[in-house]
Each structure stands twice: as structure tokens, then as C-alpha cells.
Amino acid sequence: MKHQLSFAVIAFALLASSMAFSASAPQQDPLEQRLDAIQKDILDSRTRTEQLVVELKGARKTLEEAQKYIDAQAQAAKAMAAVLDESEKAGFTYGINPDSRELLLKGWREELGTLQQGVPAPLPAAKDAKDAKDAKPLELKKP
Predict the structure, then answer these.
(1) Phi-psi region of 131 (alpha: psi -120 to 50; beta: other; left: phi over 0)
(2) What is the 8-class DSSP label of residue 75?
(3) What proportions of the chain, in percent to the nearest 5, are helix, strand and coil?
(4) Nearest of 38, 44, 39 to residue 140 by alpha carbon
(5) Of 79, 62, 86, 143, the residue nearest 115 (C-alpha)
(6) What is the 8-class DSSP label of residue 134?
């Protein structure tokens, strides 16, 4: 009888332990899972948006610097064209081989004219632009 009792106790212990391990963890409510997924998606989107704002600021700064450079080149070309006109009036084309000097001035003026054409207009300032650091952080709370 002792043998049967010990066998029954061991069998009961094995059965109880197997049921304890096979019990599944409490499942989360599907609505709660969807809410968690949406919150994660919103936070990921916010992080990506902030990264894009930083990239946009850098690109805008580069564009503004390029615009300033292009404007400076166009102004320099205009100033150089005026200098060539003054030089020609002062007698640069007279002297030995004036035809070559006239060709030189003509080619130079064409180049300077090309530098002054097609200069892009600056971008208008963004009206409703908000800095990412000025925006209030999004707070998500679980119900």
C-alpha cells in the first residue's frame, strides 16, 4: 500500500506541475493590443517627423547659401560687364591688333551675360513653419 500511495503522490505532483506549465499567460485584450500598436506607431512617426524637420532645416540652409552664392556671381558678372564697357571706352580696343581685343571683349560679355541669366528666385519663407523644439510633445496615456 505504501508503494501505491507514493506512486499516487508522484503522479499527482507530475500532473499538477504539467498543468502549471501548460497554463497560458493571460492574453491581452485585442482592443488593448491595437491601442498599444497605434501608440507605438504614433511615437515612431513623431520621431521620424522630428528627424525630417532637422534634415529639412539643413537642406533649407544649404539652399539659402547656394542662392546667396548664385546672386553674388550674377552681381559680379554684371559689375565685370560694366568694367569691360569702361575699359573699351578708355581705349582698350585701340592699338596693336584691335580685332583680337574686340573678340576678347565680345566673348567675355557673352559669358558674363550667361552668368546673369536664369538666376533662380529665392524660396518664399514658410508661413506656418514650426520648429520641432517648439511643438509640445505628444503624451499618450493608456486608459
Answers:
(1) beta
(2) H
(3) 70, 0, 30
(4) 39
(5) 79
(6) T
| Nearest by Cα to 64 from 124, 105, 13, 4 | 124
Question: What does the pLDDT read at residue 29?
Answer: 86
For the chain, residues with pLDDT lower than 50 are 132, 143
Q: Which amino acid is present at 61? A: K
CB atoms within 10 A of CB 77: 20
Q: Give ∠ CA 107-111-117 in degrees, rounded to 5.
A: 140
Instruction: State how far the Cα of 79 lies from the Cα of 113, in Å rounded to an integer.
Output: 11
Question: How far is residue 67 CA from its own chain's centroid?
Answer: 19
115 with 77: CB under 8 angstroms?
A: yes
Grid cell listed for 83: 568694367
Instruction: Check: CB of residue 66 under 8 Å from CB of residue 119.
Output: no
Nearest in space to 129 (alpha carbons), one of 68, 65, 52, 62: 52
Q: Output Rg (C-alpha) for the chain, integer angstroms.
A: 40
Residue 34 buriedness (CB in 10 A; 0-12 / 13-18 / 19+): exposed
